Please model this.
Amino acid sequence: MKYKVITISREYGSGGREIGRLVADRLGIDFYDWELVSRTAAESGMSEEKVKEFEESYSLLPFYDPMEPRETFSVEDRTYLTQCKVIRDMADKGPCVIVGRAAEHVLEGRDNVLTTFVYSDRERRINRVAAALNTTALEADRKISKMDRQRSHYYHHYTGNTWGDPPNYHVMLNSGLLGIEGAADAIVRITQNTG
Amino acid sequence: MKYKVITISREYGSGGREIGRLVADRLGIDFYDWELVSRTAAESGMSEEKVKEFEESYSLLPFYDPMEPRETFSVEDRTYLTQCKVIRDMADKGPCVIVGRAAEHVLEGRDNVLTTFVYSDRERRINRVAAALNTTALEADRKISKMDRQRSHYYHHYTGNTWGDPPNYHVMLNSGLLGIEGAADAIVRITQNTG
Model:
């Protein structure tokens, strides 16, 4: 296959992680989502909870360029650098699907990486989240706004780019229209591109 | 195949029309682009030039809802209604690729239609347009802005939606990263989805 690594960025509630899991299963390759957190924790000597917490606390930080040398690094930024290393190691190791963590940016410039973004209409996302969290539509709606905001801030802080902006990705898939299976199937087929 | 009709909206200079042609060739189905203009002209009794001219003159008009009854129609709006009929006839006739003309909106609600949007980075688009029109990068850049603006206005006028906005499409493809062949291949493969 032409693309060895598939990155999946996704709107909260769009089913992106489930799609990533299906793609990895169908292609028989590794799937990294939570494992990214545990490996980053292991490499940095922190707890998984702490790593998760950092991922959710970027809202107020300005854009940070990891290429720019500096005297001191915040714990968040050191965690991010460790995570970048973990992502690169995973991509070096062999074919895999990596969900989230601005992986498409970390792996930028590698020509065997297919970068995707999964999105969906608000109504389907609300239904999905409400069912998954066993909560009301209103609560689900709030949670979606909060999570999207977090991902957007995280992405901008570390990449300087806009989360969900088309130029960042090879392909953007509407899981609401394609369905979860349909979106996974589309990615599998594109990956098998031999052109 | 699951999807019988493929609509392709595209940024000017992204190679969307060429991609549509390749997809139609590979699938052995009909391809409609300019033919849409000539059929609309034939059905409305106008010249092809006049139809083309109307397509380029929507910039200043407010959103027009074809479902809303009204006493009088402008020539532009009557031409649009004729074009809608031509597009529906094409989709009824058999599998095909339709480029542009907000076809995804005209065919909304049909479940055998795959709606796509092709985009690319500005630099590649400028190079493509400059080569095709044998002009300077500056001229190509201006032409791209003008054409995108026209398409955007046309789209908004007749659909009330934002041109290039992800929710309007099943899949959005970056022809700059995928390549023209790669983007065509991706659409062909998704179309053959049997899920």
